Amino acid sequence: MTVYCFNDKQDSCEALAAKISDISSQVLLKQRFFSLVLSGGSTPRYLYELLASPKWQDKINWHRAHVFFGDERCVSPDHPDSNFLMAMDAMLKKLPIPGDQIHRIHGENRVDEEALRYQLVIESYFRENAADEPLFDLILLGLGGDGHTASLFPGDRALFNAGMVTPVAAPTLIEPSVQRISLTFSGIALSRNICFLVDGASKSKIVEAVLADDSDKYPASVVQRGKACWFISGIDCGRLKNHF
Length: 244
Ligand code: 6PG
Known about the structure:
This protein has 9 helices and 9 strands. The chain is of the alpha/beta class. A 6-stranded parallel β-sheet has the order 1-9-8-5-2-3, with helices on one face. It has a 3-stranded antiparallel β-sheet with strand order 4-7-6. The radius of gyration is 17 Å and the shape is globular.
């Protein structure tokens, strides 16, 4: 686990944009495509706008990128709660990514059917990979105040679902309280690089708790075991020093 701690979100996102650019350049030396999984919520909006800005847009070969989503709310793609809509508005519509290389989760579909369809999309994209070979080159994740990540909520039975994609019941304590479709722990763990982006003093306690958690109390703890990196801002870094 590597933790990078910054005073503000701008610095954190500049550093994460640089990491994404570096990883994509390394990957494209060996592979035809770079696969990136986007996280939802509100935190990554600034990062996405930065990646689409003149400074960063040309540093990633978007023609050779495939974009996936770590999770989606079961709403239509034009609904204000749609993770796809946020990513499209902040970044994707500004980038030269061929439309068939953006793999939207169809939140408007029946949740169980869509979970299956999205899993088949992922399997098809990685059909040449060996069974145990990592799938995604980089996945971006957020952290909820209850320690959830993607749409893997504490205590939810979806945590134990097999496969790479799972339907998730509407969370009762987390807004928006709508059904979700999410990568599972297995789906996330098959990523070569896992980067959490967390910002704001309101996340201070949960960040500290997750970094200190060695009993998998939180879904984010399960995901971050070992190979994750954290890009943290707006939190007293001194308090985190004991955990990395
Ligand atoms: C979602 C996200 C979720 C999010 C966290 C943090 O669909 O809501 O995938 O995991 O990353 O809840 O959300 P904020 O960035 O809005 O705090």
